[in-house]
Each structure stands twice: as structure tokens, then as C-alpha cells.
Amino acid sequence: MNKFTYSSAILDGYNFLLTNYSEVFVIGQGLWSPWYVGNTMKDLDKKFGKKRIIDTPVSEGAVTGAAIGASLNGMKPIVVHPRMDFMLYAIDPIVNQAAKWSYMFGGQSSPSITIRGIINRGGEQGAQHSQALHSWFAHIPGLKVVMPSTVSDARDLLIASVLSGQPVIYIDDRWLYDQEDDLLPANKINLNSITPRILEKGDSITLVGCGYTTFLLRKITQKLKSHKINPEIIDMRIINPFNKELITNSVKKTGRLFVLDGGWGPCGISSEIITSVVENVPPKIFKSKPSRMTLPFTPAPTSKVLEAEYYPSKEKVFGFIKSIFDNNL
Amino acid sequence: MKEYSHNSELESLTSELEINIDNFSKNELLEMISKMILIRNSEYKIAEGRKYGLVGGPVHLGIGQEAIPVGISKYLTCKDQIFGGHRSHAHIISLGVDLKSFFAEILAKSSGISKGMGGSMHLFAESVGFYGSVPIVGGTVPLATGSALANKLKREKNVSIAYLGDGAIEEGIVHESLNFARINNCPIIFIVENNLFSSHLNIKLRQPKELTYRFAKSNDIESKLIDGNNLPSICKASEEFIKRCRNGEGPFFIEAVTYRWLGHVDWREDIDVGIRRSQKDLIFWKKRDPILRLKKSLIKKFNLSMDEFKLLEKEIQKKIDKAWNDALKDESPEWSKTKKYVFKNN
Ligand SMILES: Cc1ncc(C[n+]2csc(CCOP(=O)(O)OP(=O)(O)O)c2C)c(N)n1
Ligand SMILES: [Mg+2]
Which residues on B lie below 8 Å from A125 (Cβ)? Predict the structure, then answer.
């Protein structure tokens, strides 16, 4: 076992992939500068050479499309977008091309492409530098969308994505980078074997999160317990394809559901989770209305004062969950 | 530390020499140099504010690049539409924005020009013709093009300006905009402030040539390549193209070569998002300081003394300090009001 942070675990994933698979290369902005992507790509260019670690012009559309093209010709590229917001210039190659490719040609060809979009919010960076658009991509058939929340998943889901031979959007979050954990050496992993995971067993309420929000839920576990609320915490890990069984079964046991999402509510993953539970759990089981907490339905503000209101915090989430019990909602 | 030697076209373009100011009056020149000093010292004020935590978000400073917007704005009116990007403090100050309201925005106060909702990277002041700057690289270039199309459709003699960088020109949408503007004869001037860097990467690592006006040529757009640190040459290009836009011509393209003295973001000089630029390059470009060169020429031609300049600078600094201190006293935006900004007129 070795000590890792979330970000050094991502780096370990790259090292594993680049060492063992000559068809893997990494392309995107800021790859020769440690500044853009924390230490998640530290010295990869020195170790594997600038031919396989390609820093690019400011051309997200072409870079993403080119990586998809390279994947059609035998490579397994990882595209890095240091902020999800920048990736929006690449929506056509992602949504019209990569996501549809296999289907349009009767399953004969598949882009083996991992597109890493980093959620990088806060710090008074404002509306165009803060977005968490995971739900958007999860709306698209033909794209897998993975959101590691834990240190081990940060590495293992990257490996699984790249080896899946499919178009995968891998979304990591700067607010998770400092978490620590001990990990076994990296290994090959099959993306299809990955399901949501129960991180905390409990019987009072099912709490569901993905990425950063799972982390927040874990942070309040003890406090909830000290208030006699025993939460069952489920980390989604992959939000497309959407695996509902574990969550549904958990709610059948607890009778309560709360979803925390770092994106917007309308047409988002929180809507999808609640719908899937409502559709599959008999009404009489519910002891309270399923509920959720998401971002206010506005773009991200810049000022610190407004950011404090805008983003979820341990206190806000705890207060919300506690009110479900206090008010017997 | 990597050094980059420049190609000969670029070498011959830049110069340490004093500037030929024959076509301008003393007052005109003093007004413009005052504006350049105002921009530079305002940015140093912001740098300091950022360093000491008064400014919360990232700031992209353009110290060393002041001549370009001053030369452009001289011929613009508040009816023209100017669009910028992440490094746009100088663009909006050169248009005469109210300094206190500008600082208030940088400090994210509700009295700021974007109501404290934007900060340094999202500036707006329609009253002086500034239609918006945002940090998605290249994002406003098609918008400026469309604004120019509207000028044409409305048969108004106004001009649109798209400021962009040598990095932004790598975005596909910029090339689409150039072609679109040309085929529709939009009265727009694309102004590339080529400072040879896009964040940590020198242009040589991103493009086969150091100069970008080749893209104007490929889109059949008339262009001028100028020394961006030479105010009169910017004025000359700007005056001609703006006049011709008003007379129904356009689009045009200006490439102004310059250099930013500070790193890509925030207040430090030597750090470029993790990559150190060579000290030699920095010295090379500081000798080409657009303010110093103009100052020397002014002193020589009009027999001004250094003391007169010191006095001028002192007055400008006073104005900056007052505006900054006044802005600091203002309130942060109120959370309860922000929802109504999602749609205007809802
Ligand atoms: C679409 C997009 N991609 C990447 C970035 C990150 N980024 C911010 S500024 C910048 C450099 C742009 O360089 P240039 O256009 O030359 O402007 P300069 O910073 O030199 O003024 C980059 C890559 C961004 N903000 N938006
Ligand atoms: Mg540049």
C-alpha cells in the first residue's frame, strides 16, 4: 500500500496507462505546465516525452476531434480540458461524432477516447470558469460519464475509461484533490464491472452523491450519526449508463432519499435519480418525500460573498437533511 | 530557461528607438501618454490589490501593452462597439470608463460596472462603447462580428472592434468569424494584440509562424502589421481603418506586436503559469516600453523636463488612489438580488 492524494492517484493512473499501453497518449492545453492541472500530470512530459504528452494551441474543437480521429486509427488518446467550460468548443466532436459513431455504423467502429473535463470552480472565477456539466453529457446516449469521488476511483476509473474502448467523459474535481488514501498498485480494470458503491451503511436515509457531493456527504456522516440519523451513503461513480438498482434497493430499506448534486437541478442527474427511485419503489415505502439539493438555478457569481451562498457546504447540507427528520417531511 | 530568437520580420518591426511624433500636437500626445500612464498605474494598483488579497479572483494584466488600446480608442466614439477578452482592463480604461466604477468591479462591489457580478474578467460599460469582455478565449470575436453586421443592417456608420490575442487566433470560431465578416463586408476591425504568448506557451510552440496577419490574407482581409509599442503607428493604422469602416468598407485586421511584462495571470513578473520566461527576453522588451519611448520623444521635441512628467504622474496616481479607496468602501452585491440578473426584464 502506498499513500496517495486524489491528484497523485490520477497521476498514477496516467503512469500506469502510458507505461503499459503504447497506444495511449495525452493531449490538451497546459500539459507542459504544472499550473493548469495541479500535480495530476506532473513531469509526464519529461518521463514519456513530448510526443506522447502533447500540449496544444488554444483549439479545443480540433484537438478533441483529432484525438477522436486518432482513436479510430488504433490509438487510445486521453484529451485533457483543464476546465469543463473550455470543452464546450468541442461539443460537436463529442456529442455528434464520438457519441454516435458506433451506432451510426452498426457497431463496427468505436472511438476509444477518454475526455477528461475538470470541474474547477470557486476562487471568484465566475460564470464561464465554474461549470459542472456532468448531467449534460449524461443526457447523451453513446457517452459514458464517470465521476470519481474517492482517491482510488480517481485512478481506477481513469484506467477503466481508457481501456474500455469507448467514448468516456471522465470528470474530476479540483475540490477533491487533497483527499488522502492508501492504494494498492494500479491494475487493469473493466469499466462494465463498476457499479455505484455504498460508502456508508445505514438505515435512516439514503444519501446519493457523485464526485464532490459524495465527498461532502461523507464529511457530515459523523455529525448525522450524533443526531441519531444513520445515513446510507451511495456514490454514483458512473452517471451514464445509469445504474439504479443499488439506490432503489437502499431506499426500499431506508424509506428516505436525499440527492446532493454539484450541478443545476432542472433536467439534471438529481432529477434522474429521484425519478428512478419514484418509478421503482412503491409509494407506501416512503417515510418522507424524496428531496434534493443542487446549485441555485443561476450561473456562478464571482464575488466571494456570493460564492458562499451559491455553493453547497457541510453546514447547509447537514441542515437540509436534519430538517427532513425534524419536520417529518 | 528557454529563449526564443525572433524572425527577421518581427525583429525589424520592434525597436528601442524614440518615436516619430511629427503628425501630432503636443496636447494630443500628452493626453495619450497620460492615458497610458493611467492604464499602467491602475494595473499596478490592481496587481497590488491582488497580491494582498483585496482582489479575490484572477487578474490578467497587460502592463507593457498600453499603447494599442490608447491608439485605437482615440478614433472611436461611444456609439461604436468594443469587445474584449480576459485581458481587457486597458481596453475599457482607454475608452474613458469611470475609474472608480471600474475599480469597484475589480473589487466585486455592487457599485461596479458589472454590478459586482463580473470582476476583472467580465467587464461591461455600454456608455463608453464597451459591450463586454469575457474569459472564454475567442468567445467575443463572433459577437463583435455580429455587432458589425448590425451596424451595416441599420445603415449606421459605427464600427465594431474585436480585441483578441495570438492564442485566441487558434480557435476555429475566430477563422469562421474572419470569413463571415469578409463575405458580408462587416465594418469591424479585428485587432490581434500579439504578445507572443498564450499562457505558458510561446507562439513558436503553437504556430508555424510568429505573426498572425497571414490569416487576414487567407481570408482576403486588408491588414496592417505594426509595432504595438509605437503609439503613433497604431494611431495611423487605427485612424485609417476606422474612417474606412465608417465609409462602408471593412472588415480590417491589425496585428500589433507587443509583450506583457507580467506573468499570464496575477501580479508576479517572472512566473508564467509555472514556466519562467527568460530574463533576457523581458529586458529586450522593457527597452521597448511604449511609454518610455514616447516620453523620450516628447521631452526631446517639446523641451519638456522629467520633472514635468513626474508632476503629471503624481496627479494621475492621486486620481487612481482616490478612485481605488472610494471603491473599497462600497458594498458587496446582495445575494437576494442576483436571481433577477439571469434574465433581463423578467
Ligand atoms: C476556450 C478557452 N480555452 C482556454 C482558456 C485558458 N486561457 C485563458 S487565457 C489563455 C491565453 C490566451 O492567449 P492570448 O489569446 O494570446 O491572450 P493573452 O493572454 O496573451 O493576452 C488561455 C489559453 C480559456 N480561458 N478559454
Ligand atoms: Mg498572447
Answer: 57-58, 121, 135
